[in-house]
Amino acid sequence: MSRNNKITLFTMVIIGIAIIAYSLRDVKLSVLIHDLFTLNPWWILVAFLCICAYLLIEGVITKVLVSNRVEHFTFKDALRVPLVEQLFNGITPFSSGGQPGQLFVMLQTGIDGGRASSALLMKFVVYQGMIVINFFISLVIGFHFVATKLHFLALFVLFGFLIHLFVIVGLLLIMYWPSFTKKLSKLLFHPVKWFIKDEKFYSMRETMYSKIDNLFEESVRIGRQPKLLLKIVVLTFFQLLFYYLIPYFIMLSLGYTSINVIMVTSLHIMIVMIISLFPIPGGSGGAEFSFESLFHSFISSNSKLVLAMIIWRILTYYFGMAAGACALLVKPDKVDDPDNRIK
């Protein structure tokens, strides 16, 4: 990890501590400590196992996609991919560093760059598709609740849905109509020429065309293997399910046993969508505010609400970054990719 990344990681931890300290401004420390020691540790363990399952399943998905074409790709290296993704998602605006981070650790193992990019693109397409489907279902279930209780958040929810829908539509166009996508991309990309030199502009445009071709070729290959695609879709569904259930188990640990699991899960899906709109790495500030705003109706005690938010943030954000930092220190195994031999 570069010096700048280390500084960013340290900065995000400091910001997180500051946000938590601000959230505790109206909470008595004695009450918070009492609530902490009356937690049900078994439900916290279940919540922790959920985030572990989320990461493990993504490791399985990575291994399935890569091992389909490259032999001797170990699960250890497959697991490093989502862990490093968590780290770089957490320290870059709009989670923009996740994809390059994943590509970096895959290249470390000796996998051909084109093959690694194709596998990551396909994983991203399926992941985005499942997010949009889950979010649409959550809108049907919980949007009325959000619109009634918090009008301003309802706008963020709809805006987030439109952005993710636009992304998945764009990806589908690349996969099934690449010629049109190239023409559209050329038109939309043309204004960039006004701000950079011609040589750099044409180089960037060719890279964009290359990525469109790579995704199209990978989609054709996966399309010829419906069983593999179905396997990835099912794994991604359960991966996201484990992640979305985390607040429910946290609330059970606080003693709220009569809550509606479907409504709580739907609201968490909306929170994840809202977080993606904030340019600050990890959605810091927006994530905590959204959680407290949406779950205030379920958790009446202010100290328990803040405690639930802290536990949720540690599990879904800080744990992933810590695990990713450790994963970077693990020495990768080497594979023998035939594409690299040809080159």
UniProtKB/TrEMBL annotation:
Gene name as annotated: mprF
GO biological process: lipid metabolic process; response to antibiotic
Compartments where located: Cell membrane
UniProtKB keywords: Antibiotic resistance, Cell membrane, Lipid metabolism, Membrane, Transferase, Transmembrane, Transmembrane helix
GO molecular function: phosphatidylglycerol lysyltransferase activity
Transmembrane parts of this sequence: 7-24, 44-66, 124-146, 152-177, 228-246, 258-280, 305-330
Matching PANTHER family: INTEGRAL MEMBRANE PROTEIN, PHOSPHATIDYLGLYCEROL LYSYLTRANSFERASE
A GO cellular component annotation in the UniProt record: plasma membrane
Family designation: Belongs to the LPG synthase family.
InterPro entries found in the cross-reference section: L-PG_synthase/AglD (IPR022791)
Organism whose genome encodes this protein: Lentilactobacillus buchneri subsp. silagei CD034
Topological relation to the membrane, as annotated: Multi-pass membrane protein
Broadest EC class assigned to this enzyme: transferase
The protein's role, per its UniProt record: Catalyzes the transfer of a lysyl group from L-lysyl-tRNA(Lys) to membrane-bound phosphatidylglycerol (PG), which produces lysylphosphatidylglycerol (LPG), a major component of the bacterial membrane with a positive net charge. LPG synthesis contributes to bacterial virulence as it is involved in the resistance mechanism against cationic antimicrobial peptides (CAMP) produces by the host's immune system (defensins, cathelicidins) and by the competing microorganisms.
Known EC number: 2.3.2.3
Catalytic activity: L-lysyl-tRNA(Lys) + a 1,2-diacyl-sn-glycero-3-phospho-(1'-sn-glycerol) = a 1,2-diacyl-sn-glycero-3-phospho-1'-(3'-O-L-lysyl)-sn-glycerol + tRNA(Lys)
Protein name: Phosphatidylglycerol lysyltransferase
